[in-house]
Amino acid sequence: MKIKLQKASDIGPVVRAVRKAQRIRQDDMAGSIGVSENFLAKVEHGGGNAQWTKVFQVLEGLGIELVCDIPDDAEDFLAGYMRGGS
Amino acid sequence: MKIKLQKASDIGPVVRAVRKAQRIRQDDMAGSIGVSENFLAKVEHGGGNAQWTKVFQVLEGLGIELVCDIPDDAEDFLAGYMRGGS
DNA sequence: CATAAATCCTGACGAACGTAAGGATTTATT
DNA sequence: AATAAATCCTTACGTTCGTCAGGATTTATG
User: Fold this and answer.
1) B21: nearest Cα among A54, A70, A31, A86
2) Per the CB < 8 Å rule, is B68 touching A64?
3) CATH number at residue A36
4) How far B29 CA lies from chain A's nearest CA (Å)?
5) How many distinct structural domains can be found in chain A?
6) What is the SS3 assignment for B34?
7) Ranges assigned E (strand) in chain A
8) What is the domain range of residue A62?
9) pLDDT tens by residue, A24-65
C-alpha cells in the first residue's frame, strides 16, 4: 500500500501502524532497530525533528520502502549522476 | 518517474538532478527554499546527516513527492490512526 | 475496581546539526 | 589561456538532536 507523505509529520502514523501490525512494543522495536525507545516514540508522534538517517534506519527496520516521484525533466540528469558521471 | 531510495544518501543525486533540470544555482535555490547554500550542497552530496524536516522542506521546494510503501498488514491500523482515532 | 503492561513525559548532558563568512577548487565562457 | 561563474571546502558558534534514567499517565486484563 502506497502512502504519499504531505507533511514531514505524516511519517509518524505510518511507523506506528507498521509496528502495531507486527505486534511489537516500542521498547523491543527500538532495541532491534538500534535507537532509543524515546526516539521511536517521538518519531511516531510526528518526528519532531529527527535526523534523516535515523528515520531511514527506522523505516528500514520496519520494512517500509521510501520512494520519491520526480518530474520527468530531471530523468536525464539523474541517470547521469547515478552512473557516477559528472 | 519513481525512484526507490535504498540508502539514506540516495536522496542526494535526486535533489541535484531536479535542481539542475530547473537550471537554478544552489545559491538561489537554497534561498528560495529557506535553507543555507552550505546545507543544500551537503544534501546533494548524500545528506551527511541532515534533519528530516529540513530535507522534507527541500523536497517540497523542488516539487519532489515522497511516497512510502508499507506492508498490507498495516493498512487497517493506519486507517484508524489517520482518522484521528486512537 | 485492582493490577499489570505499555506508552508517554521530563530533565540533563554529550554529540551533531545548520548557518554564516571567507577562501579554494572546479567548471564554463570568450 | 584568461576571466568569470558556480560549486565546494574549511572554521567557528549557537541551536537542536539523541540517549539515558526516572517517574507519570494511559491502556489492557482479570
Assistant:
1) A70
2) yes
3) 1.10.260.40
4) 15
5) 1
6) coil
7) 2-5, 65-69
8) 8-82
9) 999 999 999 999 999 999 999 987 799 999 999 999 999 999
Sign of CA dihedral A79, A67, A9, A61: negative
User: Which site among A4, A6, A70 would you substitute to test the B interface, given the most B Cβ atoms closer than 10 Å to its Cβ?
Assistant: A70
Q: What pLDDT is stored for residue A14 in this prediction? A: 95
Total CB pairs under 8 A between chain A and B: 168
Residue A84 has pLDDT above 70, yes or no: no
Q: Report which of B68, B11, B82 is spatially closest to residue A60, judged by C-alpha positions.
A: B68
* Residue A8, SS3 per DSSP: helix
What band does A85 get if pLDDT is binned at 50, 70 and 90?
A: very low
Amino acid at B18: V
